[in-house]
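Title: Prediction job returns without error message
Component: structure pipeline
Severity: low
Priority: P3
Assignee: unassigned

Description:
Job completed but the reporter wants confirmation the result is attached to the right record. Sequence as submitted:
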Amino acid sequence: NNYFFQMSYLLEGIERIDVRHGDNRLHSVKIYDGDPTPICNGDVCSARIPVKEITYKYDDASKVIGAHIVYLDSSQGDVASRDVTLSKMEDGQYHIQTVVDLDKDGKVLVKSEFKYWTMARWHQVYCFQEPCPEPWVEYIVDLDSISRTDADGNVLSKITNIGPAPIAGYVSHTTDGPGIINFYQATVVLPDGTEHKVAFKTLEELLL
């Protein structure tokens, strides 16, 4: 798909960046499926409607980023919007912690909780001349599982074994047809213990 992204580094209601309002951080994104240039017929122009809008809020004290995603098409079925929470972890990067799916009335449909495993790798430099570099630790954070519940906390599924995978042997929800690369795999475990292997290209596709 030929997507266009319109990104804003201004807080809502701010029309210019100065020393009070400029923080060099992304605050909103509009995503268009095609060229967003308005279509004009003479003096009459019709604006292009984005398929998705994302707004961001930053909490520097707790090192948390909140993202609110609004879907203006029907790509996510009954999900009209999502609230995503990211927090800074041991590796210094921001990772998704929770995703809440909401319907058009703002009611919760599904809550997804992300679990990670963290590995500490120590590096020691051996040298024969002072000063020697101090040992340092490298943290590796990787996604372990996603637990999904409904609005009342009832378990819907648990997604495990998430990682890169070949297409062969996996069922994809995509309609792009054969020959697609850069897929990921996961195992979806239902409450009765039934397991389904799936392939996906994006997290949104996995959470459908």
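Comment from assignee: result matches the submitted record. Helices lie at 203-206.
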